[in-house]
Amino acid sequence: MKEIITKFSTKKYYIIIYLLIGIMTTGLVVKNPLYGEDNIGYYFHLLFAFLFASCLLIYPKYKKGIIRWLIVIMATLLFYTLFLIYPETGSTILLIYFIPTISIIFFDKKLFYASLFINQILIVATVIFLVNNGKTSLYPNVTSDPIGNIVTFVGSQVFIYFIFHFTSDRITKMQLYYEQVKHSERLKTTGELAAAVAHEIRNPLTVVKGYLQLYEQDKTLDESMKKSLPLLIDELDSAEQVISQLLSLSRPTMDQNTESVDIERAINSVAELLQSYGILNENKIEVVVEAGSYIEINKMELHQLLVNVVKNAIEASKAGGTILITAKKLKNEKIEIKVIDDGVGMSEEQMTLLGTPFYSLKTKGTGLGVMICNNIVKKYNGSIKYESLKDCGTTVAICFPSKSILHRG
Ligand code: ADP
Ligand code: MG
């Protein structure tokens, strides 16, 4: 639940607010014992009623932030003023008890806890003030049964807390469900789009790959030229895999072959492959890998995962920056691969958007890389975590169960 205004229509909101203003005006003028008298308390009543009404009226324009706090503060000032200047109207104490419920309408946790806490302090302070100034006799309803009133007060606060707790719990679940539905809806669209695009891309790729394979076998061609052909064919294979992967986003399958993959070799081959890509921007790739670490995975998918992450690191790096790739066994029999760059980094907001289909800040970006990585990691029971600081760099930590664990299981 983001806003109350989106739930009720704005029109309904204003009808309720005008009704409330009508009630407040009635309270100010109809049979008010202080009406027409030059009483300072009455002027405060008038002032806070006016400010409270104004805040409620402008709320739909601003909705978030300070306006919610202002509404609660104005309501607090108004309700306490009513309690203090009209002691004969016993029910004003109820208004005070229920001040924290205002933030329930906004579903603002911070505001709720703050108003619950501050309201309790204010109530105690008010009681002390009344006792010290000998005004308790003005509140026979409250003073004739102090214990009963304390119990009612504590009970009301616990009750309010429960309402808030359960409502916010339910709302959070609903929000989560809504996000999941939105996410899977997006994935579905991506899958459909991918299926359409894949068909168009696969054919030209096959043609190019076929020609490259022909050149590879062509004895008349210069050997130095042929040297890079396996690399190009490898990259085309990866491109084909990306297409299949994109297709599998809408129809996930587990039918791909897995094997025991040597992490050191996999990382070195990716580093070698992307070295030339990094050179364009004078970036260096350094590899520090513990030998003898294996994971059970589809080789191409691991390659795809690493290429995506390292490519992003290169693209984020400034000229001359270094990308460090490390891999080691952790104590919990997991293997952790880290790709560390000292590039542009990401803000918190950018981090929350990471992995959203088509989210890219690059002019030629696809915004699919991170999502594909997330999918691959999930498929092999791994985890992927991004730590980033704007303008300082990013660390991507990928964890996979090491092979021995899988075998034991
Ligand atoms: P693309 O690379 O096509 O933009 P990705 O899904 O791979 O798509 O990445 C999405 C976005 O995430 C990038 O555009 C970039 O803004 C951000 N990003 C990913 N990795 C890094 C990184 N190492 N440093 C900074 N930003 C990154
Ligand atoms: Mg990318």
TrEMBL record:
GO terms for molecular function: ATP binding; phosphorelay sensor kinase activity. The chain crosses the membrane at residues 12-30, 42-59, 66-85, 91-107, 112-131, 146-164. It catalyses: ATP + protein L-histidine = ADP + protein N-phospho-L-histidine. Residues 196-404 form the Histidine kinase domain. Pfam families: HATPase_c, HisKA. Keywords: ATP-binding, Kinase, Membrane, Nucleotide-binding, Phosphoprotein, Transferase, Transmembrane, Transmembrane helix, Two-component regulatory system. CDD domains: HATPase, HisKA. It comes from the Bacteria. InterPro entries: HATPase_C_sf, HATPase_dom, His_kinase_dom, HisK_dim/P_dom, HisK_dim/P_sf, Sig_transdc_His_kin-like_C. PANTHER family: C4-DICARBOXYLATE TRANSPORT SENSOR PROTEIN DCTB (PTHR43065:SF46), SENSOR HISTIDINE KINASE (PTHR43065). This is histidine kinase. It comes from Ureibacillus chungkukjangi.
